[in-house]
Each structure stands twice: as C-alpha cells, then as structure tokens.
Amino acid sequence: MKHFVLLLTFISLIACSSQKYQVTKIEGKKIGITETQQSKTEIENYIKPYREHIDKDLSEVLAYNPETLDKSKGEWQTNIGCFLADITIEKSNPIFQKRENKTIDICLLNHGGIRTLIPKGNVTARNAYEVMPFENSAIIVALKGEQIIELANHIIAEKKPHPLSGLNFTVSKDLKATKLLVQGKPLENDKIYYVATSDYLSNGGDNMAFFKKGIEKFDIDYKLRNIMIDYFKDVDTLKINNDVRIIKE
User: Fold this and answer.
1) pLDDT band (50, 70, 90) for residue 6
2) How far apart are CA 61 and CA 115, in angstroms?
3) Which is more confidently placed, 17 or 21?
4) 3-state class of 192 per DSSP?
5) Cα–Cα dist 157/76, whole Å
6) Pairing of β 177-182 and β 167-171
7) What is the DSSP letter of 54?
8) What is the 8-class DSSP label of residue 175?
9) Distance (Å, whole) CA 128 – CA 232
10) DSSP class of residue 69?
11) 4 beta partners
12) How far apart are CA 84 and CA 115, in angstroms?
C-alpha cells in the first residue's frame, strides 16, 4: 500500500513592540495518508466536472500513428527520437523565422527525456503528456561549427541515441565524428548554426557543456509537449522518417 505523508507545520509568533513578528519555534507532525482514509464527498463532487473535462480533452483522437515509436530499439538513433527531433524543427522554424529572420539547422534533444513509447494506432494529447511529462521548452542556441563537432563527438562518447535532426555524420573506427553534414552541406567550422534543443540541455544538462559555449540563445516560448500536440492536430497520419543519420565505419 502506498503511504503518503502530510506535514503540518505550526509556527509560534510573538508580537514585537514595532508590530513585527519573528519565529520562535517550528514544530512538525507527520500524518499518514493511506487508502483507509475516507474521501470527502463534497470535495469529490467539486473536482469531478474538472476531471471529466480534462479527461475528455486528453482522450480526443488527434491523428493516426502507422508504427510503434520506441526509444529502446536502435544503436545510434531510434524512430521516436528522429520523429521528435524532426517535428521540433518543423513546428519551431516558422516562429523562429518570423521573430528572428533566421532558420533552424539542427535539433538535438536527450534520449532520457523520452519517457515512454507512442504505440501504433490513434494518438491523443495524453500520448504527448506521457512521452514528455516535463515542462521543458524549446530553445534555439547559436553554435559555431566547432561546437557542432563537439556535439557529434558527445553523442558518440555517450553511446546514446539522442534525438537528432538536420545533422548527419560518420563514426570512425577510432570513435570520432567525421564527414559532418548540416542540412546536406559540409560543416564549416566558423559558420554559425542554429540548434533547437530544450531549456534543460541549453544550460548544459546531461553533460552537454557545448551548449554553454553558445553565442546567443533564443527562447521561442514553445513547450516541447505542445509541439507534439500541435503536430498531432495538424496531420492526419504521423510522418515517420527512418533515414540513417549516423553511420558507423
């Protein structure tokens, strides 16, 4: 049986002559909340219409998924990772272009941020919440070509199929990134590339320190989960691109 704890805190206050207060003592008491506790009917009745409304919105069919998208299958990339990175560029680019007159070149998200699969069949907003339950937003980071090389080498060193779009490269026999292509064109070391990622990764999360070297950051105020939901609403059938992005020699 799950056991939850409610902590009640009592603070004793004494009045000073200047009408200010100061804490003199803090006491805590644990009260166990278990399934044996009776629910309050009036509270349940108050919550019920809100719960039903939210459940209806989350359960509405938005699109069809032609194949199961799973993060557990694939050495260097997964179909769900490619899908999420692709739609992040697709949905974020119009906003970025309109606000900054610039174009997103690459998207990199993190493998650990994908919390579950998207099963074959009808998809709903609930699927998006299950895949990405966190409140992460899309951030565009301006990186030089040399940081893109660091990015590729980080993927190789981590040996995790992080969601990737817009960048192709080869893993050499000595485990280095070679033959890097950005949007099909050879990487230029001194060129500035715009990389879509999450706010968490943009601050160096998951050891992605290369993002801290960014020349500039742009917050487009668009949650990754909402990107998924908006994409579902805009299409009849999910487009799955299984092209090879990382090749091992």
Assistant:
1) very low
2) 21
3) 21
4) strand
5) 11
6) antiparallel
7) H
8) S
9) 9
10) B
11) 33
12) 12
Tens of pLDDT along 105-125?
999 999 999 999 999 999 999
Query: What confidence tier does 21 reach under pLDDT thresholds 50, 70, 90?
Result: confident
pLDDT, mean over the chain: 89
99: left (phi over 0), alpha (psi -120 to 50) or beta: alpha
Q: Cα-flanking dihedrals φ and ψ of residue 153, to 5°?
A: -70, -30
Exposed (0-12), middle (13-18) or buried (19+): which is 67, by Cβ within 10 Å? middle
Which residues on neighbouring strands pair with residue 13, listed in sequence order?
Answer: 23
Q: Please report, in angstroms and rounded to a whole number, the separation of the first and last CA atoms in the chain.
A: 52
**Two structure tokens written together for 206:** 């998951």
> Residue 101: which residues within 8 A CB-CB, separation 6 or more?
none
How confident is the model over 201-230, as pLDDT tens digits?
A: 999 999 999 999 999 999 999 999 999 999
Contact 57, 125 (CB under 8 A): yes
Q: How far apart are CA 213 and CA 143, in angstroms?
A: 7
H or E stretch covering 176: none
pTM (predicted TM-score): 0.81
Determine the residue type at 226.
N
pLDDT in tens, 136-164: 999 999 999 999 999 999 999 999 999 99
- Let me know: does 102 contact 193? Beta carbons within 8 Å: no
